[in-house]
Specification:
The structure is a single chain. This protein is an all-alpha fold. It has four helices and no strands. Helix content is about 55%, strand content about 0%.
Length: about 70
């Protein structure tokens, strides 16, 4: 399957590189916010979740967002 063998692998590399640009030194910190619902809705989304440097994440919904931003 070319999508999984080529396209997905390239996207995961760029995803990891983007996180690497956020955290450069040991004392650096940052937040990664993914606003694309495909990460939860599509089968390939788990590859992106597994690529996160820390597996401690929170999922927000529209209801949660409304509570946070009031």
């Amino acid at each position: 399957n070319p999508f999984f063998e080529i396209t997905l692998q390239d996207a995961l590399i760029k995803f990891r590189q983007g996180m690497g640009r956020l955290i450069r030194r040991h004392e650096d910190s940052g937040n990664i916010i993914l606003l694309d619902s495909r990460i939860l809705a599509k089968g390939y989304g788990k590859h992106f979740i597994n690529a996160l440097p820390v597996q401690d994440f929170k999922r927000f919904s529209r209801d949660t967002r409304d509570q946070i931003f009031q």
